[in-house]
Amino acid sequence: MKLEIVHSTRYRYSGPIAETVMEVRLRPMDGNGQRCLDFELDISSGIKPRTYLDGYGNNVHYFNLVRPHTRLSVISRSLVETGGELDADPGEDLVDDFLRFRSPVKDVPGVRELADRHPIPDPGSSVAVEQALDELTLTISREFAYDRAVTTVYSAVDEVLELRAGVCQDFAHLFIAVARAMGVPARYVSGYIHVPGGSGSTSASHAWAEGWVPGRGWVGYDATRPVRTSENHVRLAVGRDYTDAAPTRGIYVGSATGTMSVSVRTRQVR
Could you tell me which of 13, 43, 44, 10 has the C-alpha nearest to residue 253? Predict the structure, then answer.
């Protein structure tokens, strides 16, 4: 399937600010059944960003705007092909790094309790690992409510466990924490989800997790919906948690206050 994606992020400030430094991970990844066929990044004021590939294989664009401004827009346009063949060699040099805990993915009693409820009888069996992760996906969906009002981008797993609610980012972090407690390397994925048959649009970015399955490599689990990931999921970036894979991240210099609006539109094309 081919998807056309337009991701728009706009910042407005109450007064002129002196400088903005930003990096974005908005170019969809290649590999594991997905190819980015075309990509454009438009930044206001005619800014031309520089690029690099980070340690997790994410495409990063970065820039520094050093003249006074009250607005800033970052608009990406992507053409992505999904549903292709999975990588023949699922090798991953950094897989052990995705067993380590750090905030917001914390090793707390609630995480261990969920892990104990989803034992893996044979950790070397891809079938056993996948079944346990499927069951974990369903458990999070059933026992935690989707509520955009209760958490923030900085919320950690212990807060989500206490509230029994959160958003896709929180459910991804919780899945990762429990999977790691189960002995399964797991990583965070930022991206998009296309909803077939609807208006072809989504209101914001999406997030899910991937678990490392023996002999298969990274397999995606979306506890928000709850499903395994499919050709309707588009991967932007991966990392240990949200801070490694945030679509946009930056700071500005100035005393003005700022607001941000984000819109994402997806459309299937032939």
Answer: 13
Coil, helix or strand for 10?
strand
Are 114 and 108 spatial neighbours (Cβ–Cβ below 8 Å)? no
Q: How far apart are CA 229 and CA 195, in angstroms?
A: 13
Q: Who contacts 235 (Cβ-Cβ below 8 Å, separation ≥6)?
A: 28, 29, 32, 34, 189, 190, 191, 220
State the distance between the two ends of the chain, measured CA to CA, in whole angstroms: 8
Strands across the sheet with 258-269, in order? 35-43, 69-81, 2-17, 258-269, 201-202
Give dist(CA 92, CA 212) in Å, integer: 9
Q: At what angle do helices 126-143 and 168-181 cross, to 10 degrees?
A: 140
Which amino acid type is present at position 39? F
Beta-bridge mates of residue 165: 145
Measured CA to CA, the distance from residue 9 to residue 25 in angstroms comes to: 12
Angle between the 109-116 and 168-181 helix axes, to the nearest 10 degrees?
70
pTM: 0.94
Question: How many residues are listed for the chain in this entry?
Answer: 270
pLDDT for residue 204: 64
Total Cβ atoms within 10 A of residue 164 = 12
Q: How far is the C-alpha of 153 from the C-alpha of 132, rounded, in Å? A: 28
Average confidence (pLDDT) per 10 residues, the chain, 270 residues: 96 95 97 95 93 96 96 97 81 86 97 98 96 98 96 95 97 98 98 76 78 93 95 96 96 93 91
Strands, E, within 18-58: which ranges? Answer: 19-24, 35-43, 50-53
In the numeric block, the tokens 């948690």 are attached to 241
Q: How far is CA 151 from CA 12, 158, 160, 167, 253, in A?
A: 23, 11, 8, 8, 27
Residue that the structure tokens 């965070």 belong to: 188
